[in-house]
Structures are given as C-alpha cells and as structure tokens.
Write a structure and sequence with these properties.
The protein is α/β, with parallel strands linked by helices. The protein has 2 domains: 231 residues, TIM Barrel (Alpha-Beta Barrel), CATH 3.20.20.60; 36 residues, no CATH class. Helices cover 43% and strands 13% of the residues. The longest helix has 17 residues. It is elongated and about 85 Å long. The N and C termini lie far apart (63 Å). Bound molecules: 3-methyl-2-oxobutanoic acid and sodium ion. The site of sodium ion has 6 residues, from loops.
C-alpha cells in the first residue's frame, strides 16, 4: 500500500520516528522500497551524486522528470517526492504550478519539495490548493549556496534562529505536510519540532526531528568526492564496486573470464561442416 500524506503526518502524532532516503534510479528505488522506507525523495542532489556537477544549481526540470519516472517505477509502497530544481518555483505562481504538475502528472510522484520558507509560502499555498502536496526545506538550502557563501551551519544567531522558526511556521500555515531541516543546530530543530504540527525531517539537524533523511550515495559510501559531516555511512559500496571491477579486469587479462558458464555452444555437426 502506498504511503499517504496522512500517514506521514500521523508519524509525528504517534511519536514514531521515520526514515526517508533519496533515490535517482529504478534498482535503488526498488531496494529502498522493499526495505519498507515510507518516503523516497528524488533529490536534486542528483546533480552532485549522480550527474557529477559541483552543486545542485545546474539541475533542470527535464533531468528531474527523467529520474523521477525511474524512481516511481521502482516504488510500490514508498511515497515519492520530486525535488523542484533551482528557479523552477521562484518566478511566479503559474510557472511553479506548471513545473510541479509535471512531477505529479508526467512523472507519477505524489508530492514535491521546494526550498525556502516565508518567501515561497504563497507558492506552497497555491500548490496545496491545487491538490499537490508540498514538503518544505529550510536551513542550509543548497540551491542558495552562492548567497549563503558555502556549506555553513544555519540559524546559530538569535536573528537567524527566529527567521528559521518563522519559515517553519509559514510553511505549516501554507499547508506543507512536512519540512526538511538541513544543517541547523540540534537544539534549534528540537525547538522547531516542538512548535509546529507537521513533521520535521532532519539532515544535519540532530536527533529530535520527527524523521531523518539521508542522501543514499552518502549512506552507502558510493559517492566519495565530498562526504558531509551529517552523513551516516552504513556501507562502503565504492570499495565493493572497485573490488568487483578489478577482479573482472584481472580475470580477463589472465584469460580466466569468461568460463564455460558464461559461454554458448553450437551443434558439433554445424561446426564440422563449417570447417570443411
Ligand atoms: O536533494 C536532496 O537530496 C535533498 C535532501 C538532502 C533533503 O534536498
Ligand atoms: Na535538494
């Protein structure tokens, strides 16, 4: 059964902590889905961990739709959230609706996520009114990396903390069903989590959030260019993959791959005639 928005809200009411993960392709979504993770985010972290860009800024709607379709095909039960790329929801409500609806109608996602609080609340409200569930995202918002001057902890000063609280409240007020808190002090996310009625989902935001989210490539040790402090590494896939690849290359060079097991035969009478 597909996870619903209602069920995600109920996790908070019951005090049941939940995990969310990113995915960008069909096989990874299948594995995550079969592990019972209730929400999969097709993050625009796609840009960093799959496409090889050094930020999320170059990621386009077409990139996101392509990968969201693959994830949707691999997700039987998990609710799929599509991450709206840079500048696809800021310009005006019309463009925001058009782009968000592509995630739902064309790619088959159940919800969208966008970055920002007070400044995007009008867009969030309109999307929700039109039947598109929205997940917010505040704190360290990677699409604003140039304005933020790098990957810094957000909300440490009184003003900045007050601003984040106002952002979280604005998102709840606008009808968002959950909000991602990224790279903010654990004490501040605990406070925000206690002050709003919708689930907070933390990444680098301490243990008090209602849910946690991790980038799958960080979690499984697949992407190693840059490992953020908030990443939990539960496997070392890059090493395992390199082992498989070098083992294969070594066997090919020794003439030990392929063996009869990976080969095909033909009828010996055909072969005899062929050789005459
Ligand atoms: O793009 C992404 O993966 C995200 C999560 C880190 C929340 O936005
Ligand atoms: Na993102």
């Amino acid at each position: 059964m597909k996870t619903t928005i209602q069920q995600i809200k109920e996790f908070k009411l019951r005090g049941e902590k939940f995990a969310m993960l990113t995915a960008y392709d069909y096989p990874t979504a299948q594995i995550i889905d079969r592990c019972g993770i209730p929400v999969i985010l097709v993050g625009d972290s796609l840009g960093n961990v799959v496409l090889g860009y050094d930020s999320t800024i170059p990621v386009t709607m077409d990139d996101m739709i392509h990968h969201t379709k693959a994830v949707v095909r691999g997700s039987n039960n998990a609710l799929v959230v599509g991450d709206m790329p840079f500048m696809t929801y800021q310009i005006n409500v019309e463009e925001t609706l058009r782009n968000a609806s592509r995630f739902i109608q064309e790619a088959g996602a159940q919800a969208v996520k966008l970055e920002g609080g007070v400044t995007v609340a009008d867009k969030v409200k309109k999307l929700v009114e039109c039947g598109i569930p929205v997940m917010g995202h505040i704190g360290l918002t990677p699409q604003s990396i140039n304005q933020l001057s790098g990957h810094k902890v957000q909300g440490r000063s009184l003003d900045a903390a007050r601003k984040l609280i106002a952002d979280a409240r604005a998102l709840e007020e606008a009808g968002a069903f959950a909000v991602v808190l990224e790279t903010i002090p654990a004490e501040l996310s605990a406070f925000i989590t206690s002050k709003i009625g919708i689930p907070t989902i933390g990444i680098g935001a301490g243990p008090a959030c209602d849910g946690q989210v991790q980038v799958i490539s960080d979690l499984l040790g697949l992407f190693t260019d840059f490992v953020p402090k908030h990443a939990g590494q539960y496997a070392k896939l890059a090493g395992l993959m390199a082992e498989g690849i070098t083992g294969y290359a070594k066997d090919v060079s020794k003439g030990e791959f392929p063996t009869a097991q990976q080969s095909f035969t033909m009828d010996s009478s055909v072969l005899d005639t062929l050789k005459q």
